[in-house]
Amino acid sequence: MSEVTVSEAGPRGMVTIRGDLGEIGRIVAGIAGTAVPATGRVESAGARAFAWMSPDEALLMLPPDELAEVLGALNAALAEHHALAVDVSDARVIFRLNGPGWRDVLARLTPADLRPAAFGAGVFRRTRLAQVAAAFWLPEAQVAELLCFRSVGDYVRDLLENAAAAGPIGPRPD
Amino acid sequence: MLTLTCPYCGVAACETELAPGGEAHLERFGPGSSDADFEAYLFLRQNPHGVHIERWRHAMGCGKWFHAVRDTVTMEVFGTYPAQTYGPPEEIVAKVRERHPDWQVPEGGA
Ligand SMILES: [Zn+2]
Known about the structure:
The complex is a heterodimer of chains A (174) and B (110).
Chain A: E1 5-8, E2 13-18, H1 21-32, E3 42-45, E4 48-54, E5 57-62, H2 67-77, E6 84-87, E7 92-98, H3 102-107, E8 125-129, E9 132-140, E10 143-149, H4 153-165
Chain B: E1 3-5, E2 12-14, E3 19-23, H1 35-43, E4 51-57, E5 65-71, E6 77-82, H2 90-99
Antiparallel strand pairs in B: 1-2, 3-4, 4-5, 5-6
Bound molecules: zinc ion (ZN).
Residues 6, 8-9, 11, 58, 61-62, 64 of chain B line the site of zinc ion.
């Protein structure tokens, strides 16, 4: 465990945005205070992050105490659009992988291309972690955050802790 | 291992991130159709030894359905394209014909 520590990130407000991001992306970004994420990417500003999930879905992550105000502003701004903003904070859980070995931990569990050229800061990669869906990104240097459904949270924690305990694999690309 | 690039994400997704949806561009026969047409729609597939157009879903990703053209013998992938269409785009057909000059896009499924 010396290379990486696995921990559950504290509670985080999460808002799912459904709609044509080409149409509503800028409205949401204006309220969130971030840029609009390009395909497969995440944009952050302070403790807030706006992630691309699919051509008609995005996820806004923010401190829980800011959620009510932001959600209210989103619903008001999106009222005239074919779009949806819903609090899904309880649906998912976020884990943090802290330490230089995060890439090895993920590489044991996912088929995603983790080479620095394919997965670096700003990329929001939705993929598979062992048997379940997950997404991960790099909020800061040497830290990866990983998102999965809360219903499989215990399973994912065990996966990550087990993979972290095994130490580094091979020569590291970074 | 089959790797298909999702046309929505641009992600090179491996087979285990995808859910297979079988042969693409089937013509649907529903209520009012003949028994033979309905049976063919439900059960008869081309199952080719060679170029095949398939549906796939980026299940462990953006969740969207898309199409892929590949060779079932060599596993060569000729290309992928979005779901909202009735046939493969010209550039993918051209790529297939570099390998199989006589290949024609199958009509209306089985
Ligand atoms: Zn995709």
